[in-house]
Structure formats: C-alpha cells, structure tokens
From TrEMBL:
Pfam families associated with the record: Ion_trans
Annotated membrane topology: Multi-pass membrane protein
Compartmental location: Membrane
Keyword check for Nuclease: no
Protein name: TPC2 protein
Keyword Ion transport among record annotations: no
Source species, domain of life: Eukaryota
Annotated Gene3D superfamilies: 1.10.287.70
Signal peptide per UniProt: 1-16
Organism name: Psophia crepitans (common trumpeter)
Amino acid sequence: MRTATYFFIFLNLSLAVFEEPAVYPLPFLVTSLVEVLCLLVFFGRLTHFAKVTLRNVFWKDTKNICIMVAILLSLTDLAIYGVLRIYNVRSIRWSRIVRPIFLINFAESRQIRRAFRSIRNTLPEITYVFLLFMFSLLMFSLMALKLFGERNLQTAEGLPYFKNYLEIVFDLYVLVTTANSPDVMMPAFDFSSWYALFFIAFVIVNTYIFMSLFLAVVYNNYKKHLKV
C-alpha cells in the first residue's frame, strides 16, 4: 500500500513534465486520464484510512481535510480547463500548486512532514537576519543612487545607469549571487576606478558576511528543530 501510494504521488507530480507547457508534451486526454486515475487512487486510500479510523479522529485530522480539498480542487480545475479547451479558450491549470499536498499529508509521509515542520519552525527565527540583510541591501541601493544617479552614466546597451531605485535594488540583489559581476560595475568603473570600492564593499558585506550568517542561522535552527 505504501509503495503504491508513493508511486501514484510521483506519477501525479511528474505530470508537469508532460502537460502544456511541457518538456515532453502529451495529448491532453492522456494526461487528464492519468491525473483522474491518481486522484481516484488517493480518494480510495483516504476511504480505506477512514474505514480503519474512528470517525471523530478522522475528521479532526487536518491532513485528511487537506487531501479531500486538494482532490476536489484538482477535479474542478480539470473539468473547467477541459471545457474551456473545447471552446478554444486559453487558460492555465491553477490546481498544479496543490499537488505537493498529496506528498506531504498522507500518513506514509511522516518524515517529509517532519522536515516541513522543521522548516516552518525555523522561518520565524531567521526573520531577523533576513530583515538585516534587506536593510543592508536597501541602504547600499540608496547609496548607489546618490553616487551614480547624477553622473549620467549609461550601460553597454545605452540605457540609463542606476537611475531607478527599484532597478538598483534588483541589480544589487543579483550581485549578491555574483551572477551579474563584474558587468553591473563596469559603467561606474569606467567613469572612475575608485567606484570599484563600493561594489567590493557590497560583496564583502552582503555576499560573504550576511550570506554566511544566514546559512549558519538556518542550519543551526533547522538542526535544532529536527532533533525535537
């Protein structure tokens, strides 16, 4: 029973590879039939669990309620999508986001629920570090706006350089990952090589200090809650 449940959960999650837009597209009829089969198996598994569990215990368990709601939402979305497809009306399958619920809430997924519970309990404790990081990012963005916004600099594409505050925040956020380094620095560096110190300081503070601190806090708190 456990192996069959895991197999159909995996099959249901893997439908995203074959549904439009897909990596390996299959006809809608094929994917819809497979999804209905998976939902029937989930409903049968839930019914079986209800037969061997006291009624008041079964209905008080939020995991069972989540599974039933996910099944209803999936069937409703599938029906609406199929009808709209018949009339050539373009739509999206919004119920895909509920598919991981089946992975988490079945009784066999105790270890997965434990991991998710640890993540949930860890989130409030890393909020302060995240807020400090965002404060640092916003302050560096404000300094960048004051330093470069009035220099009339341009990027290699001929666009204004560091003129819009929100765009600066996004560019510096990407710089934390070093994905746009050193391109984001070059217009300012070409104007004056001393401006490189600003970007070096930003990388040291936010990439090397804050990201290391963030990782340490996440790891220590997750390990602490995982042992509980």
